[in-house]
Amino acid sequence: MTTTTLPRPDTAAGDRPEPVLSVRDLRTAFKTSHGIVRAVSGVSLDVYPGECLGVVGESGSGKSVTFASVMGLVKKPGWVEDGEILYRGRDLTRLSDRELRALRGKDIAMTMQDALTALNPALTVGEQILEVLRAHADDLPRGRAGRAEARRRAVEMLDLVGIPSPADRLNEYPHQFSGGMRQRIMIAIALACRPRLLIADEPTTALDVTIQAQVLELIADIRARLGMSVVLITHDLGVVAEHCDRVVVMYAGQVVETGPTRAVISDPKHPYTQGLLDSIPRLSDLSHPIRPIQGQVPELIDLPPECRFIGRCPKRTPDCRTGIDMRPAGPGRAARCILVGEETEA
Amino acid sequence: MTTAVPASSAGASSAASPDRAARTQSPFWRNMRKFADNRLALASGVVVLLFVVMAVAAPLIAPHDPNATDLFRRLQPPAWMAGGEWAYPLGCDALGRDILSRIIYGARISIFIGTAVILVATTIGILAGLAAGYLRGWVDTAISRLVDILLAFPYLIFAIGLMAMMGPGLSNIVIALAYKEWVIPCRVVRGETLAAREMEYVEAARALGAGRARIMWREILPNILSPVVVVSTIRMANVIILEASLSFLGLGVQPPTASWGSMVADGRAFMLEAWWVSTFPGLAILLLVLSLNVASQGLRDAFDPKFHD
């Protein structure tokens, strides 16, 4: 990567700045006909100013639900059961709908997985950016001057995300743009009010590989220029390795490992993280076998207290039945595995 | 942050008046172009437009005063028959009034009532349908039950009852018909809203802080307008028939105002000796309603995604 030359947040725990977002023991559940699905059970994580946090996990690991909870966007039949979501010291779970709405888009913005469907097909992209500006930008003057200013900012945003001749394209509809361009537009809409925190939910999943790289570089570049924090939700460890300062690995509704990206990837502590890394094909070493993780994510209904990875873990022991909390595993690192402590002792 | 915006001055001028080429790229206008490709539908649309022009310009077009009686021309036949004259091309009615002029003026009633009822009904239907479909809960239950109740009444009998209660008159006809007509757009809007509220762009708007009202008006409504337009056109034909029916029964527009329905009723007594008195206004109803139906069919084909290439 050539663009990111940000000072990385100090990875050693202790002398860090206050986190922008701090999730504590979050529990989100969904009521279904089979029982109550605990999609997120006790997730804690921090996002520090200016950093890029990668949240990795396979489908159903609860990564998207965690951040839907942060945004207050969990839809019925789901609800946030318990936990704190502190945004710069304010607990978002205690805010009223109105207060939360004022925060969304202005302080915390989120981009959706699929840019093809996340843009409104009936409105021009300009209208969609202006919409957000009108809702949140209190500093805009009223009347004609305000409209001109809003328009100027919209053009600026499109320019920022690299849309050629932005002033003309403001009047075009989403279907007139390519997939990568639409993803850029969605980022422009999310960034229109200069949020402190951008949550990008699988920003590259729907894109070609070449476009993926462009969009990720764009996010990294804008993060550096605007000094905001970014949460990158993805299932692609490769993306995390290249773009994130720290990583949170989620499995079955829990955080199983967290730490600075480089350390986690070079020396994964949790067998699930190891499994994820082993299942990535490597071009540098084609003889290296791809080892998929056997089995499936357990159903999140009435889970016993045992380690949730027990059914798929190659290193399981009888002790895993008792279950386990996160254990410190080196500077700024933690993992949810009983082997972690033993290794350090050994 | 100061990002240099290239050609921002040029952009701002074109931005001030959104350029037309881009405007016509909106999904709505693309569908309208598809509609224009369907010749039959387009022709029907033109016929409907001609009726509208006829209604608006009635005083300029009509050869005679529609209410001027002339007992010497009582039941005078159309121009091409023995005893007819070209000054009264479609003949005269029992009071010697020019049938063509009365048809031209009658178009005003049909089109005014059709448009007014559809406008009122669609407005109410959109409001109620959006509220029911987006807010769900008790709002939905209340509106949907009301819709079910109204649908259980036969339309014409319901309208007759209302007219009997309120008495005749133009605005009463509009009220009597709109009273039940709104349930049709309401159900369409509710159904479309139920589908649209789950779309990702609605979720995206919520994630960026949009409130309920803004999501309903700005995110959902523009996306569900097409089926509403289609249904309104079909229903307008229906409303025109209903107005004619009410006037035929004497509950609609009161004499001497010309209305196609009452003209047909007037001619009933002379069907055998003067068929033209009933036939020509009947044909006018037929032509307008048929054109509306064919045009709405064309609209549906153009707007329905299943018909897309």
TrEMBL record, chain A:
It is an enzyme of class 7 (translocase). Its EC number is 7.2.2.11. It comes from the Bacteria. InterPro entries: AAA+_ATPase (IPR003593), ABC_Ni/Peptide_Import (IPR050388), ABC_transporter-like_ATP-bd (IPR003439), ABC_transporter-like_CS (IPR017871), Oligopep_ABC_C (IPR013563), P-loop_NTPase (IPR027417). Residues 21-277 form the ABC transporter domain. Keywords: ATP-binding, Cell membrane, Ion transport, Membrane, Nucleotide-binding, Translocase, Transport. NCBIfam families: oligo_HPY. Belongs to the ABC transporter superfamily. This is Nickel import system ATP-binding protein NikD. It comes from Caenispirillum salinarum AK4.
Automatic annotation (TrEMBL), chain B:
It is found in: Cell membrane. It comes from the Bacteria. Residues 107-296 form the ABC transmembrane type-1 domain. The chain crosses the membrane at residues 40-62, 109-135, 155-179, 224-254, 274-295. The keyword Metal-binding does not apply. Keywords: Cell membrane, Membrane, Peptide transport, Protein transport, Transmembrane, Transmembrane helix, Transport. The keyword Transmembrane helix applies. InterPro entries: BP-dependent_transpt_permease (IPR050366), MetI-like (IPR000515), MetI-like_sf (IPR035906), OppC_N (IPR025966). It is a multi-pass membrane protein. Its main location: membrane. Gene3D superfamilies: MetI-like (1.10.3720.10). One of its GO terms (cellular component) is plasma membrane. CDD domains: TM_PBP2. One of its GO terms (biological process) is protein transport. Belongs to the binding-protein-dependent transport system permease family. This is Dipeptide transport system permease protein DppC. It comes from Caenispirillum salinarum AK4.
